[in-house]
From TrEMBL:
Pathway: Lipid metabolism. Pfam families: Thiolase_C, Thiolase_N. GO terms for molecular function: acetyl-CoA C-acyltransferase activity. The keyword rRNA-binding does not apply. Residues 320-441 form the Thiolase C-terminal domain. The active site is at residues 141, 399, 429. Gene3D superfamilies: 3.40.47.10. Belongs to the thiolase-like superfamily. Thiolase family. The keyword Protein biosynthesis does not apply. This is Mitochondrial 3-ketoacyl-coa thiolase. Residues 8-62, 68-315 form the Thiolase N-terminal domain.
Length: 443
């Protein structure tokens, strides 16, 4: 399923910093995170909330190998999303009342008691009028990208002129569950706590944990341990160089939290480990397979955060300052046991639909779910590695699944403009065997 489109513009793109598992956002709900991102995006776009026709947010759950307390462990997904959305609207110079629709993707909404309301609550907290609808969607790791697709579809069909899209996740708030007790306990039966965060990381259809799908894919493409360790180090180093240079300031909306009775402004990503060394990476043991490729240092980390993208029709964009044009997108299905290969056919189909080649693309972002998986995709596509994840990826930043597509989209838009480049592709593999990719063009 691939398509090239005209007449859809990105006028705002913001995200919150990404907090590590159990960190600063552990008590901040997904709704709060999304509200922050959405408010910032609307402000950036100069779009009023009542100009929004629809709101779309992606929210899922993922895993990491860094279970330490992070800044957002007490921040709900709603709060995070609100921050990102507010910033995106501000960037776009769009008032909340200009938004026609709001779309939010959500898989494991149980990270907060009112999680099933995240899309609607984020929209209302941003200031979108009550008569504008909000939608929750789920394409797992691709939900942030899918929110952009859904928003574009609303615009292309004439259902909306301005759409607020986004993705959010607070994995730190994933609960433990005891299944089967609602209707009484059987005498002598011992019930067990289930970690809902980890339980979802095995695909019951193919019977493999996500890490083993990366091992299988890495084996098929002859990826070596040295390659993944070096790639992981590169991700951390590129993030540090870019962060030190202030590259991420254009896309990040700071989040203010109260920690130990003090107001703290979170302005940068919490998960990266810039002190990482190659020697340290080589000492880490494989997690899923003897002499395997996936270690705590070569997989994406668990993190919390949100992103928001403001989309506008060509007509609506005339009164704004567009950042980029949405050129097209592609969504595909692949073998679940090698789900990480999804970006390959997604990108190939996208290029066919837009009648372009990789030579026409200046920057490429493939979500680093696993270093082995990303390298396999790069090898299959024969990518110019100097164009890939130029400021680091999820190995450093972490992978709050619902937010990752929004982060990548926002980063691509701002980085293309910063470098004076034209065209970029963002892509992600998707658990269960899918891939998604979209293309943007700076204006």
């Amino acid at each position: 399923m691939s398509v090239a489109v005209k007449g859809v513009f990105i006028v705002g793109a913001k995200r919150t910093p990404f907090g590590t598992f159990g960190g600063v956002f552990r008590n901040t709900s997904a709704t709060e995170l999304q509200t922050i991102a959405a408010t910032a995006a609307l402000k950036e776009a100069n779009v009023a909330p009542d100009q929004v026709d629809t709101v779309i947010v992606g929210q899922v759950m993922s895993v990491s190998h860094r279970p330490s307390g992070g800044v957002f462990r007490n921040t709900s997904a709603t709060e995070l999303q609100t921050t990102a959305a507010t910033a995106a609207l501000k960037e776009a110079n769009v008032a909340p009342d200009q938004v026609d629709t709001v779309i939010v993707g959500q898989v494991m909404s149980g990270t907060q008691a009112d999680g099933i309301y995240t899309p609607r609550h984020a929209a209302l907290k941003v200031g979108v009028p009550q008569d504008r609808p909000a939608l929750g969607i789920n394409r797992l790791c691709g939900s942030g990208f899918q929110s952009v697709v859904n928003g574009a579809q609303d615009i292309l069909t004439g259902a909306a002129k301005v759409a607020l899209a986004g993705g959010v996740e607070n994995m730190s708030q994933a609960p433990f569950a005891v299944r089967g007790v609602r209707f009484g306990a059987t005498l002598g039966l011992n019930y067990a706590f289930e970690d809902t965060l980890w339980a979802g990381l095995t695909d019951s259809y193919c019977g493999l944990p996500m890490g083993m799908t990366a091992e299988k894919l890495g084996g098929q493409y002859s990826i070596t341990r040295d390659e993944v360790d070096n790639f992981a180090l590169q991700s951390q180093q590129r993030w540090k160089t870019s962060n030190d240079a202030g590259v991420f300031k254009a896309e990040i909306e700071p989040v203010t939290l109260t920690i130990k009775k003090k107001q703290v402004s979170v302005t940068t990503d919490e998960h990266p480990r810039p002190q990482t060394t190659l020697e340290g990476l080589k000492k880490l043991p494989p997690v899923f397979k003897k002499e395997g490729l996936v270690t705590a240092g070569t997989a994406s980390g668990i993190s919390d955060g949100a992103g928001a993208i403001v989309l506008a029709s060509e007509e609506a964009a005339k009164g704004l300052k567009p950042l980029a044009r949405l050129v097209g997108w592609s969504v595909v299905g692949v073998d679940p046991s090698i789900m990480g290969v999804g970006p390959v056919p997604a990108i190939e189909n996208l290029l066919k639909a837009t009648k372009m080649t990789l030579n026409d693309v200046d920057l490429i972002e493939i979500n680093e779910a696993f270093c082995a998986q990303t390298l396999a995709c790069a090898k299959a596509l024969k990518l110019d590695m100097s164009k890939l994840n130029v400021n680091g990826g999820a190995t450093a930043l972490g992978h709050p699944l619902g937010a990752s597509g929004s982060r990548i989209t926002a980063h691509l838009v701002h980085e293309l403009r910063r470098r004076g480049l034209k065209r970029g592709i963002g892509s992600a593999c998707i658990g269960g065997g899918q891939g998604i990719a979209l293309m943007v063009e700076a204006v």
